[in-house]
Amino acid sequence: MWKIQWQDKKELSLARQIFLSLRERILAGQLAAGERMPSTRELAGSLGVSRNTVCEAYDMLLAEGFTVSRQGAPTRIARDVCLDYRSAGVATAPVKPEADRLLWDFATGRPDVTLFPWKLWSKMLGEAACQLSPGQWGYSSPKGYELLCGEIARWLLRSRGMLVEPADVFITAGATQAFYLLAGLLHKTGAPFVLESPSHPAMYTVITDRGYPVQWLEVDEQGAMIDTLTESAVSAVYVTPSHQFPLGGILPAGRRAALIRLARDNDFYIIEDDYDGEFRYAGPAISPLYSLDASHVIYVGTFSKTLFPALRLGFVILPKPLQEKWRHYRKYMDVQNPVLEQAALTAFLRTRAMDKHIRRMRRCYGEKRSCFLQAVQKHFADSVCPWGDASGLHVALQFPGAEFGERFVEESRAAGLGIRPVNRLCPSLHKQHRDKLLLGYGHLNAGKIQEGMSVLRRLMERGDYGYVTRGS
Amino acid sequence: MWKIQWQDKKELSLARQIFLSLRERILAGQLAAGERMPSTRELAGSLGVSRNTVCEAYDMLLAEGFTVSRQGAPTRIARDVCLDYRSAGVATAPVKPEADRLLWDFATGRPDVTLFPWKLWSKMLGEAACQLSPGQWGYSSPKGYELLCGEIARWLLRSRGMLVEPADVFITAGATQAFYLLAGLLHKTGAPFVLESPSHPAMYTVITDRGYPVQWLEVDEQGAMIDTLTESAVSAVYVTPSHQFPLGGILPAGRRAALIRLARDNDFYIIEDDYDGEFRYAGPAISPLYSLDASHVIYVGTFSKTLFPALRLGFVILPKPLQEKWRHYRKYMDVQNPVLEQAALTAFLRTRAMDKHIRRMRRCYGEKRSCFLQAVQKHFADSVCPWGDASGLHVALQFPGAEFGERFVEESRAAGLGIRPVNRLCPSLHKQHRDKLLLGYGHLNAGKIQEGMSVLRRLMERGDYGYVTRGS
Ligand SMILES: Cc1ncc(COP(=O)(O)O)c(C=O)c1O
Ligand SMILES: Cc1ncc(COP(=O)(O)O)c(C=O)c1O
């Protein structure tokens, strides 16, 4: 009865093994309520362990109420602790197979992290760790590290000419968290959220997960077609005016003004997602919608593209009427961002290491882009039309006459290519973008880009997607 | 008309200032649609800047569609870009007054971060930064850093005897994020969440924010009174069995078994919040409810108390049926935790620096606790009864006959004392804990603890809270 099942777990102390073994018997009802436990001396002798070890195990049983002990009397099994115990959660789960390896993965939204100044970043992390005060390692504000908010405001001024109060800058775990919180904050019963089609799936998903209605805004070469927006009762409008994701248009001033007028007349907020505004090759940065009317635009920024995605740092410039609710929801969602990266990013911005890094990356992405466009030219001549190549880390390629669906995805994967058709990002019924592919090149080197494009060409020649190759 | 308003902002390039100034005039309608812009040479001359500077500003206007330009023809103002522009968001917000300074802040949930091995942690952060591969700085899994999940499973085995599969460990931004996600995952229409009263406000807040019903479970010296749970249709039950927060009871085995039986019979999950199980002074760690039935218990752990709160790292051991949904919601909530701290924590656990730190802190908190209890004894003799002093970083003090409300909070704050009455954490109508105060001492040194208690005594002597002082 008192035999202990020794486990093959070196991590477990003998005392705990004894405890676990006895507890299992008590739970299973093999040791019944009121039953007397053997003395510690007795059990230690029979198990060949020290008496201290057994005492420790008995203390655990007693502390958790599996046994009762009254001064002088022997320890007994407590009442009502029997359970039809099944050992659960110990079985090994099937290990998920590793994502199939793609040789040429043209995924979007991936910066080239190999060129990030890791040494400098480590140094700044180390310095930040030394400089933070004990209070700052505790819970602080759901708004974010105040010095970082100030540096972000200064960075927005010098990089985009934005006039922003640090008091309105709220730090987030990436743009994704901003969208998540905004979906909850901006929803008005019965009024749809208006999203670009195609667009990034994050905003669409959080809105439909909550059961809120969505209305689509079609997109052309210049971005969202604002004049098709007829609904006046709207929860909010989500746009990417500096570089439409994924088709690359820059929203022209006329459409910007029209959108702001609509927002004012119908009293809704515009969510401006400026996810890669830094990487514009053909001229200076586009100034944001926010600058036109800070009271109707919620500007969302992220450091995922400029630094790296696993940093999970972004921010939102929040109109004052939303700030109190935001604080509440953020506090009970995850309290705040970790402090260390916030402090390091503060130094990265303050010392202008950011500016230098952006300049360098803009040059480097510009070269990758030329390489990419040359490869497109080589393999497809003028039969293919690149959209949105003036900025960012990706391009949409239009193959006139083609129609890309699941079969393309499967066949390209089988060939080692990772490429998404644009219409994967159009949950609306209008499928006018089915002749376009989306290719991210920011994280790839020239060799990969060139190889990948020649593989794509072979695939296009081989497969019948309705497009006739005309490359050299 | 073409006069530029130079700003006193050294951060802004001349070109951008020209651009901003012209844009403002266009938006305000002062420069009308179709109007011809001056030539770059002309404007440069009149402003006394280089022609390149003006060209740059013109490029910005053109890129954003404020102007149009056809080969050979002069640049003109675009149509439809006028806006009744008001400069918004530039006003300075009233700065929030700093939280009033408390001289003796007995807040709960604050570890003593001054004793954390910062040097070692910085080293581990630095090493982690060097070891992570480029792929790991990109977006990865919403589950968390796999090596960390493995180390957490090993840590739970050696510290609490828990058998956990790494595949079931999901990393979170603290326990708070786990509660937030679980509220959404576990809700069944019409079925209340059952919470301890009193309890930590996080779970209560996220549930009521979503409009879900709550049912209260009263708490006595031993923790939640499970036998008062009569409802059978329940969304989930939230408990703190290892150390009831805030009253400190250890849930006895009989109540544990009863709770598990209820969960099995009525098919609901139990959320086990083990927020400070490491710091038990009177014996070995309490083994968790999870070990009794891993298929009905969701175990939530956090590193906020063992390391520091601004780390924002915790975890949940998730039953398989919930894992897919969890991945989905986490992915669109904030994608994942930052990777660096996860990698450093992996090393902290792997090298057993964690075990050493916990041993040291347990000793240190044990001393603070003795100091605290001695001060209580000195000032209040046996007239005051400490609850839950066998573990954790806080104690609830019962002042028989007293009744603590808003007046106490105000008067103690005025005296420089930060102390919460327990009934602030009882949103239920039963106010049987109104004679108790909650005092966290983990972050305070002996001097602060002693001074604070003598201030409290003077306050209790002075104020009339229904309690008669009997200290020495
Ligand atoms: C258009 C767009 N917005 C937002 C994001 C979200 O970025 P994060 O949450 O990493 O800041 C992305 C990421 O790829 C994106 O492409
Ligand atoms: C009982 C209890 N649970 C959970 C938490 C949340 O901790 P975190 O979100 O920092 O992990 C706390 C914090 O004080 C707490 O007291």
Automatic annotation (TrEMBL), chains A, B:
GO terms for molecular function: DNA binding; DNA-binding transcription factor activity; pyridoxal phosphate binding; transaminase activity. Residues 12-80 form the HTH gntR-type domain. Keywords: Aminotransferase, DNA-binding, Pyridoxal phosphate, Transcription, Transcription regulation, Transferase. It comes from the Bacteria. In the C-terminal section; belongs to the class-I pyridoxal-phosphate-dependent aminotransferase family. This is GntR family transcriptional regulator / MocR family aminotransferase. It comes from Propionispora hippei DSM 15287.
